[in-house]
Design brief:
Blueprint (H helix, E strand, L loop, with lengths): L1 E13 L9 E16 L2 H7 L5 E5 L8 H11 L18 H12 L9 H11 L1
Parallel strand pairs: 2-3
Antiparallel strand pairs: 1-2
Length: 128
């Protein structure tokens, strides 16, 4: 049995979900562990294994390809929601036009929006 420990670290350039900037840097750091077990029939064992952190390898194999795992770990380290912090709003990374549009739409009251009127009726019925 082998225990493989992967440490992911670095910086990636992502698109900000708030303003659409394409030059927003995100620092990554995470750890992942994989348990590799040596068995006689690794294909069958890998197909039936439910734990994604366990991988089976044939006793006769001398190489283990980890590139796909590293790629997956990097993608898992990137946050689901990628937004500039509140302190960075208006910085050179931000798309000021998009922020102005967001501010304009957020100042409009939701009570005036006809889209929400049907949902308010449903909410009142659920509360009763």
């Amino acid at each position: 049995m082998l225990l493989l420990k992967f440490e992911i670290g670095g910086t990636v350039q992502v698109t900000c979900d708030r303003c659409g900037s394409t030059t927003f840097p995100v620092n990554l750091w995470d750890e992942f562990n994989i348990v590799v077990k040596l068995v006689e029939d690794p294909e069958r064992m890998n197909d039936s294994e439910e734990d994604p952190d366990v991988y089976y390898l044939s006793r006769s194999d001398s190489h283990l390809k980890v590139a796909d795992w590293i790629y997956e770990f990097i993608n898992l380290s990137i946050p689901m929601q990628k937004m500039c912090s509140e302190e960075e709003i208006g910085s050179p990374f931000c798309n000021k036009d998009a922020l102005d549009l967001l501010k304009k739409f957020s100042t409009q009251g939701t009570a005036d929006n006809t889209m929400w009127k049907g949902l308010e009726k449903i909410k009142k019925n659920l509360d009763n």
